Amino acid sequence: MEKLKYKRVLLKLSGESLMGDQEFGIEPVMLKHYAGQIKELVNRGVEVAVVIGGGNIFRGLQAKETGIERVQGDYMGMLATVINGMALQSALESKGVYTRLITAIKMEQIAEPYIRRRAIRHLEKGRVVIFSAGTGSPYFTTDSAAALRANEIQADVILKGTRVDGVYSADPEKYPDATKFDTITFAKVLEMNLKVMDKTAFTLCQENDLPIIVFDINRKENLLRIIEGEAVGTLVEG
Q: Three-state SS across 86-102?
C-alpha cells in the first residue's frame, strides 16, 4: 500500500460550503461533492473525522439581530450543525461509507454522545466520524470544536476547506495583489493578524503543535493530493 503523509485527519467544513449558489440551506450537489471526496480518502485507508459548521441554517452570532439572547443563539447554531451532520452522514452512507454521527449535546435517537475512546475506536475501524453540536458549550465556534476534537483524537493535521486556495496577506477577493503563503508559522499568523481560525482554536493548535492546512475544498483532487504529501494550499505549523 502506498505511503500516505497523513493517516488520521480532521476535515473542517463551513456550513456555508453546503449552500452552493443558494442563499441558505443544503445544496444536494455540494453534499455529494464532499461525500465523494471523503470516500476517496477512506478508500485510501485514511481515518477521517469531520467537523461541519451550521452557518447555512443558523449562525449564533446573528441571533442578536433577532433579539435572541447570545447563549440561546449559540445553542441554536449547535443544533444546525447536527442537521448538517445528519445530511452528510446520509450522503456518505448512500456511497457505501460507514459513519458515526457524534454529538456534544445528548440526543440519543439520532446520534451517539461524545466519548473520546469510542470515537477513536470508530476511526480505527474505518468509520468516518462526524462531530456535531460544536463543543456543547456556548461562546465557542465550530473552529474551536475542530481544534479540540482534532487534539483529542490525536489527528495528524486539521484540513480546513475554504473557498480560497490558502492563506493570503489580505483577503484575495478584495485585494487581488495579496500575497499567498505556501507555509507560515503560527507566530507569523498572529503577528499579521491573519484570519485562519478564531484565536481560541488557533492557540489550541499552536500549543499542541497541530498543523493546519488551509486549502480550496471545491477543487476535487485537493484532498487526495494533500494526504499524498503534495504542497496544496497553505501549511501553518511551528
A: HHHHHHHHHCCCCEEEE
The mean pLDDT value for 131-135 works out to: 97
CB 205 within 8 A of CB 187: no
Whole-angstrom Cα distance, residue 158 to residue 50?
A: 10
Q: Distance between CA atoms of 71 and 139, rounded to whole angstroms?
A: 7
Complete domains list, the chain, with CATH:
8-237 (3.40.1160.10)
Average pLDDT over residues 198-218: 94
Residues 220, 195 contacting (CB under 8 angstroms): no
How many percent of the chain have pLDDT more than 70? 97
Task: Write out the E strands in the chain.
Answer: 8-13, 47-52, 99-103, 112-113, 128-132, 157-162, 167-168, 180-181, 183-185, 212-216, 234-237
70: part of which helix (H) or strand (E)?
helix 70-94
